[in-house]
Amino acid sequence: MWQFVKYSLATLVGICLFFVFALLLLAGVGASMGGDEKEYVVKEQSILHLDLNRPFLENASTEDNPLDDLPNPFFSSTDKLGLIQVLSALERARVDSNIKGVYLDVSFPMAGYAKLTEVRNALAKFKKSGKFVYAYANSYSEKGYFVASVADVVYLNPAGLLDFNGVSVQYMFFKKAFDKLEIEPLVFRVGQFKSAVEPFIREDMSPENKMQTLSFIQSINKELFQKISESRGISAAKLNTIADSLQAFDPKNAERLGMVKLGYLDEFEAKLKSLTGKKVSDELKYVRLGDYLHAKNPIPSVEGNNKIAVLVAEGEIVGTKGGDGSIGSDDFIKELKKLRENKSVKAIVLRIDSPGGSSLASDIMWREIELTKKVKPVITSMSDYAASGGYYMAMGTDVIVAQPTTITGSIGIFAQWLNLDNFFKNKLGITQDHVNTHAHSNFMTSASALTDFEKSVVQNMVNQGYASFTSKAAQGRKMSLAKLQSLAGGRVWTGVQAKQIGLVDELGGLDRAIEIAADRAKLPPASYKVAVYPKAKSFLDELISTAFSESSMESRFVQSNMPWTKSIWELDRMKKREGFLALMPFMMELE
């Protein structure tokens, strides 16, 4: 039933997409992608305009999107930021004599705190060159202000808003809805902290989940406030008072407290003109990120063929075949084998941004990593998330590096099914029947209840999966199984907490992981190139893949204003996650 409804809707969308895409091609979109790109020329006294108010990926194309100004109801947004590209631009601009400073536009960045910490650290390094960083926004979110606080001056529109009240997490629970719909979730897990199943079996957070969540958000909040304190010269204690009393929400209070400087955009730009030696009547020379990355690189190229490969693993681990925003073990292994066999690649940095997913796919990738590190060093760099299946990938590498605000751990396994018998029968009037050759021929294949014996079989399989996960983690971290299991049970940790308990080796960003990889490969500084894999998709490839992928079709309906379509896709997504999973609480919203 669900497959019929889903694919009927998908067919209708596909027909619309076909005609829209054909029109775009006829209009010359494809032609606009062809030809050689011209090198962008950076003029003297230029300012790098860093607009961070877009979704962040680890690695994204720098091509312009010709559809930016067109209504776009069918295609997922291709206007994304690549963290690696942002870091590269800041490193180039730091030594570029034509770049005098950065205009930081970071109202509402769409990334986790670990990625934003990478950007913030790169901005701090940029400032040490003697160049300026000035931020301006009409309003700042908590994340936006965290990044902006590193600037020399943080401008805020006098009528704007500074959201500064600490870190929070929100979970959504479906139990009451399932009760009303007569849908029975069947859940099997190991570990009292494995809370990914709670949205289906509870109406609120368990005491264990509340405890671990409070622990890791307090750890994140402490790190954020300490960084802001250092940059703005306001004590952490004072920042806590400001957050508790919501004092910063009043722009005048925020200025009085030293958090921002109030000013309109013209006043901000007048300051930039004075910093670049321009007259009031002169135009500022802004350089966009995409343009700047197409300019001549001021950093001399490295001689020789030695490479450090950065292999990006980003998204939920969905099985053997991945897609946009997900990791498939087949695709990952294909890339890793190429790098292992490439003699010019001397070491590999595995850049992980994943909450986990399929336990089988996680184990398959773990095995390939084990084989690879016998040939050359493999270092992990954790981004926003490297939890559950994401940690499964990391645990066997030579060294694990995480940001203090990375969310990791969640070492545990669970399984879930949905018993839809009563929902189909009582709500939709649909009944099912079956014929078996053996007592359990339809075991794990139908949306029906499980017998007690079948439940015991599933639980035993989950127990075995957990034993395998924890034993391999203990082996990789070189600690006793008893100690590892005391840190597991599905519990989530921040990077700084994970470092303290031995699940992580070092705190730092991608640059530190690359340094460690070079050191392990005995490559002196400036003797190697850094290459990122897989290659970022071109605009046209991104357009095609997002247009015709199943995930894109789902997102189009979810974003529609028809509640019934959203419910269909949500339930289908839950059913896709049936089986054995190493996944952290995927409903978590960290703000």
From TrEMBL:
Residues 126-275, 372-523 form the Peptidase S49 domain. Its main location: membrane. InterPro entries: ClpP/crotonase-like_dom_sf (IPR029045), Pept_S49_pIV (IPR004634), Pept_S49_SppA (IPR004635), Peptidase_S49 (IPR002142), S49_SppA_67K_type_N (IPR047217), S49_SppA_C (IPR047272). Pfam families: Peptidase_S49. It is found in: Membrane. Keywords: Hydrolase, Membrane, Protease, Serine protease. Belongs to the peptidase S49 family. This is Signal peptide peptidase SppA. It comes from Aquirufa regiilacus.
